[in-house]
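As described in the Methods, two query proteins were run sequentially through the folding procedure within a single session, without resetting any intermediate state between them. The first query and its resulting structure tokens are shown here.
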Amino acid sequence: MGVVIEREVWEPKPISYVFLFASCFASISLRPFRSRSGGGASTAPFLRFQRKFLLLYSLASVMEGLESVFGEYEYAHYGIKGEQMAMCLAAGAAAALFVGPFLGILSDVKGPRKACLLFCILHLLLGVLKSISRHPSVWVASVCLSLASSVFSFCFETWMVTEHEKQGHRQDCLSDTFWLMTFFESASLVGSQGLANLLFKDFDKGFFSPSAPAALLAIISILYIRKEWNGCQQQSVIGSYRKSFSAHVLNDRRIWLLSWSQSSIHFSMAVFWILWAPTIVADGREVHLSRLYPCFIGSRMLGSTAFPWFFGGISWLHNEEYLTAAYVVAGLSLLIVSYDYQEIGVLVMLFCVYHACVGFILPSLARLRTMYVPNELRGGMISFSLAPASAAVLLALIQGGYRQNLANAMIMALAALGLLAAAGCIHLLTLWRKQPRPNWHKP
């Protein structure tokens, strides 16, 4: 029996947006406030610190969203074909693979504040390049954007945790900041899409490009960083850092399990953003893709609001056990998509489920990093754990996008299997946590 191609343009019903907004509002309003009791003297300073950081993090998230909101459309405008587009993205993945880990080490050695400044400078250079040139080098833009995304993955979290400890705030307050980071990042991505659609006129008119407001936000962020966090940060000696990194990260099996879990979720997110549109419009189906984007990001926001519920006092299981279930559900949702043809509504629902799991997984992993990774090694650990994801994305782009040796369904299936393997890693981590910690480090 042949597949019937839908001729009418498919779009989500408006009630979907209302449901996601109401669910997020209800989840935040009714969530457990376990940390409200005690420590009242430190509550006001912590809230001020948290609000300042979340403001900066939101500005950085808007920059990330503005530079990637048009995606393939921007490449196509400059005459880039599908194979060339894949190679441009592959160049960015290669930069993240070979340069990203060293940026994480530099962040730990020189201080995460300088890494945050580097992130802003990269976006400023990219914005200036696109604003002054009618036909900017897409290769340079891809590399700059990829390096900025690599730095974004660790610099702000590392800086926040370091400043949190330096200012003497309670350790249990970190979890609130972790899920709020995911929530505000998602909200900023939706806002960046709306801002780009509002300001965008024509790629040939440079200063109407989304890169211009991204450059402006980069300047504002640099000034904000220098004003609010201008204190001297302790720097590490590279020799002692190498010994500490080898002892606490490279020779600890728990960190290897955590690293695989981080790498798998980032690889699946990269695969999703590359393949979700071709998957939905397969067989000539017509869809308002721009109206699906808020559904996915809204689902991630909803998933992040679930984190304090499972981490709060009402939970009778370890956070890792819920995290294992989230990995399984996320993996199965992508596996179903890769296995068989689905109706558009089913695909959108599965992708929303996946993003809800991502919203819960990201702050959970940040909490586990706080438990197992010293703060002075956090940037290097995150950047090294993302290297396998960058290598897998590079392989998928070359073999799938350029050489056409891997089907899209196979790439998505590999991402799903990686998530299921990560569920096994988190399960092992839970079992080992209940046992006395063995001496895995070298003396």
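Immediately afterward, the second query was submitted; its sequence and tokens are:
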Amino acid sequence: MDTTRIARNVADFGMDTITLAGPLEAKLRAVREAGFTQIMLAARDLVGHPDGVDAAVQAVRDSGLRVTGFQVLRDFEGLSDHLHGYKIDIAKQMILMARQLGAKVLLACSSTSVHASADPQRIAADLRKLAMLALPHGIRVAFEALSWGRHINEYPQAWEVVEMADCPNLGVGIDSYHIFATDTALDRLQEIDPAKIYLVQLSDFMWQQTRSVQERIDTARHFRVFPGEGVHSGALTELVLKLDAMGYRGDYSFEVFNDDYQQLPLPYVARRARDSAVWLAEGVLRRSVPLPGTMRLRPRVQG
């Protein structure tokens, strides 16, 4: 096995701090020692640090890990009056924290607010305003469709308003969980300019479908698993291969909310993520695709 090539391919994949329990420094150490070179961070990683935001930023810098992106700005678009002004203030602070970290991508999720307008032109205008706020800081905004979003809940809808906004640093974020939860056809990925895909987040889950919006939310927040561990390995393989064939060469981040993993030792969880990254880099992207689920049956490679 060509370990140099594996390391190079695995560098395309990173972990998300939301998967791991414990202090930020311990998370960063576990991710680095598992062989990853990048990390997706959340605002809580900074503001929740006992020594403050500056100390958290320094810990990330000291880790040597590249920051995949910063999350997450929620319920931004489609609001009016004082609600809109409030969200502008929140967005400005999120952008400043992302800049401190050296993050090049800020993730924004489609609104779930009952107060948000359904007007696509209004949504596009707000996203344009958000992107323009980020532009002077060298930050791109990835707009992601939440599968329980009020007006935008599938990635083709997110792409439509991003196209409408027509801003140089505004693109889409693709999240496999939300695609599988809504059973959205992968063929529509061909409509998206690959240069406008700023982030791809990968995860799986253990049942074929979510039967209600509440089950969709609960699964997303508590029961995701790493790629190759769930029942959607075939669809996830197809997703990654389609993106690769389109010319996407950006980052993949494992966004895995899992209550069980939050109770387990960090090195163990990070090694599971590493196994998933190796499966994707060597099994899927080499076009030698294993049967769905076989990644779980393979003995772990040591060293």
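The two ends are 12 Å apart (CA to CA). We note this only descriptively and draw no conclusion about the first query from it.
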